[in-house]
Amino acid sequence: MIPEEAIAATLMELAHRRGPRASFCPSEAARLLSPDWRPLMAEVRRVAADLPLVATQGGVAVDVRSAKGPIRLRLAE
């Protein structure tokens, strides 16, 4: 199990590296945290919901908690 703090730190590091206008796939964070990253995806999304990040689908903001399918994350403005 990856600690929530490690997930949050990885998500925020990726977001800050990209800057306020660029987004990233949550799987990028999961891949940095574990070679067996797929099982982490639900936890990565759950942690992202409590961070100053915006989730989007097709460029439109969505609720990370209820979004189905692929999302992207970026810093909240």
Automatic annotation (TrEMBL):
Taxonomic superkingdom: Bacteria
SUPFAM superfamilies in UniProt: Winged helix' DNA-binding domain (SSF46785)
Transmembrane segments: none
Protein name: DUF3253 domain-containing protein
